[in-house]
Specification:
Length: about 180
């Protein structure tokens, strides 16, 4: 039987839940294509944090987000492996914001849809690092920690992905 988590460990789990649960759930949902399973994976990730010995948990504070995303990714991939499938990431749903000009809103929605389709067409590793960098805001080092790839390889993947996206983007869209 495990000892009850200390106040410090509990505070770290609460901090992780408050600051990262939403982005972890979006990330897991894109990997799993299933919101319910994504919630389960995020819950397992937070439980894993709570089960760490206090000194180890405290040492994670400076890199908590990277650790959480790494554990979440591994747990989501384990779910996919258990099912015998590794599926592509989904495009994020468009944010709903009030728009004064319906035509401009429609144009932005079309642009966003086109961009998500282009990102979806990237190879899986490029797609994942693009989303971690531009949707979740992680640094190259954090992406390296999450994906278990070198920082320089993350840079190469991002460079190649952006080059592919630039070439694929319709010339008439660039103004």
């Amino acid at each position: 039987m495990q000892a009850a988590p200390s106040d410090s460990a509990s505070a770290l789990v609460i901090l992780a839940q408050r600051e990262h649960e939403g982005s972890l759930r979006r990330y897991a949902s894109r990997l799993l294509h299933d919101e319910a399973r994504a919630r389960d994976v995020v819950q397992e990730t937070l439980l894993a944090l709570g089960r760490l010995p206090e000194p180890e948990a405290e040492s994670l504070r400076p890199r908590l987000a990277a650790w959480l995303f790494t554990v979440c990714r591994r747990k989501a991939l384990n779910v996919l492996r258990a099912e015998g499938r590794l599926s592509p990431l989904d495009a994020a749903p468009a944010a709903l914001a009030p728009e004064a000009d319906p035509a401009a809103a429609l144009e932005r929605a079309d642009t966003r849809h086109h961009l998500f389709a282009l990102v979806e067409s990237l190879p899986e590793r490029q797609r994942e690092v693009v989303r971690l960098r531009y949707q979740e805001g992680f640094s190259y080092q954090e992406i390296s920690d999450i994906t278990a790839q070198t920082v320089s390889h993350v840079g190469v993947l991002l460079h190649n992905a952006l080059h592919t996206l630039r070439r694929a983007w319709p010339a008439e869209s660039v103004r």
